[in-house]
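Tip: read the tokens left to right.
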């Protein structure tokens, strides 16, 4: 519903404050009130200062929509239920079939570049709840994978100009180079509430170069997409061949380092591994050999590892488990220490005989509280997952170690008589707090006990 001009000016703190916040001058604000409308050239400043959307400003003598497209709109997000969110496109123009995926939201206030390059977002369109996206630009260091696996991004305000000494290019230029489409000017609060209350919907993000939209076709495309349940996406993001990793975590002022004196050899199964997880393993004293998601137990064990790591990744764990579970069970039989994160945690649960299920809205962001049941401590964690292990289906030989304080879902398991454990969240803290770095030391401790 459009807002009256007086209410918008009041929201800005009165005429003088409105002029100062939007940079348009008091005479321009007077003309807004006189005309009963805000010219479209002033919308970006008003939207940035108030948090309103273009729809809120479409009142009075504001230009009419053309062919159903609101004035100033160049992109649209269409959900399978017919909901339409207009905005301003950035990144690459869509051509032919527009990107389609599950629309989710992430609550992190920082680390948008790490979030976008997390392979666990494959098949998803990310909505950032924090409005100021782009303020530190983009660089070659804050990435978790070479390419963006997400299918698009949604933000409230126009991409912010970078203000960081580490910035190498703007976020807009970077996502363009990655072939990704985004939309700004969306009421992300309304979209987030829609996801919170109704579950993650399927959506299509269109940013056509000619500005023409076929909403019926976009809705049909969204409705036809099967969704993430039953979808194995690990094969899309995994490495294609085995490789070694020795880069350690970033530290001021040197940057990334190298592990030159490893104490243990870890084989990491790549279901969509984030680079900072591998860096944390290297920093903890490990030489890391990364193998594809489809590696068999024999493929892993021929490297004679001191420990095996199961990485994060996208998609339905039950689908990936068709080939991953037999592999994990083969490793479990040897007694080699095993550590899993995110999808790796879910796959371990399946290998132990438990079941997984899809969460209504998922956990995504760098501010998720988790309780360690053994110590009673609460950790603020970084998370990105839409599926969870059903703790009630765990066998007698496994125990729950961590739970979410948001919804009580399972966040960690351990095998009672074996050196095996996993967590649902991301202890590598990229982005996010470092409360859970101790888990990498715990993994190394299990390997020390076997030497």
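Filled-in amino acids:
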């Amino acid at each position: 519903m459009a807002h009256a001009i007086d209410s918008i000016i009041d929201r800005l703190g009165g005429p003088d404050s409105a002029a100062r916040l939007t940079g348009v001058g008091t005479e321009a604000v007077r003309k807004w009130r006189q005309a009963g409308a805000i010219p479209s050239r002033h919308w970006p400043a008003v939207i940035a200062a108030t948090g309103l959307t273009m729809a809120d400003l479409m009142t009075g003598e504001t230009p009419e929509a053309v062919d159903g497209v609101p004035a100033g709109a160049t992109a649209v997000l269409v959900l399978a239920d017919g909901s339409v969110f207009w905005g301003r496109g950035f990144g690459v123009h869509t051509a032919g079939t527009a990107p389609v995926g599950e629309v989710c939201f992430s609550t992190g206030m920082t680390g948008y570049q790490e979030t976008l390059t997390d392979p666990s977002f494959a098949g998803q369109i990310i909505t950032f709840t924090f409005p100021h996206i782009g303020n530190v630009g983009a660089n070659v260091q804050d990435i978790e994978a070479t390419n963006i696996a997400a299918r698009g991004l949604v933000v409230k305000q126009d991409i912010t100009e970078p203000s960081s000494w580490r910035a190498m290019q703007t976020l807009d230029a970077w996502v363009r180079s990655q072939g990704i489409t985004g939309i700004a000017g969306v009421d992300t609060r309304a979209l987030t509430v829609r996801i919170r209350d109704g579950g993650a919907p399927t959506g299509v993000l269109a940013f056509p170069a000619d500005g023409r939209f076929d909403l019926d076709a976009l809705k049909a495309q969204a409705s036809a997409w099967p969704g993430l349940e039953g979808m194995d996406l690990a094969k899309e993001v995994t490495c294609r061949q085995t490789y070694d990793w020795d880069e350690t975590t970033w530290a001021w002022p040197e940057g990334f380092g190298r592990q030159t004196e490893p104490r243990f050899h870890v084989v990491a199964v790549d279901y969509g591994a984030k680079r900072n997880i591998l860096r944390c393993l290297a920093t903890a004293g490990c030489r890391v050999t990364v193998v594809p998601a489809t590696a068999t137990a024999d493929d892993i064990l021929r490297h004679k590892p001191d420990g095996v790591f199961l990485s994060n990744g996208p998609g339905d764990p039950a689908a990936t488990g068709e080939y991953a579970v037999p592999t994990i069970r083969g490793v479990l039989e040897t007694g080699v220490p095993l550590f899993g994160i995110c999808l790796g945690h879910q796959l371990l649960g399946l290998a132990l005989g438990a079941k997984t299920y899809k969460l209504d809205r998922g956990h995504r962001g760098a501010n998720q509280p988790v309780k360690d049941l053994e110590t009673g401590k609460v950790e603020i964690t970084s998370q990105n997952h839409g599926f969870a292990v059903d703790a009630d289906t765990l066998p007698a030989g496994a125990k729950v170690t961590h739970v979410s304080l948001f919804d009580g879902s399972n966040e960690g398991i351990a095998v009672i008589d074996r050196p095996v454990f996993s967590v649902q969240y991301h202890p590598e803290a990229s982005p996010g707090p470092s409360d859970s770095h101790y888990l990498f030391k715990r993994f190394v401790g299990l390997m020390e006990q076997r030497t």
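The two ends are 68 Å apart (CA to CA). The first strand starts at residue 75 and ends at 79.
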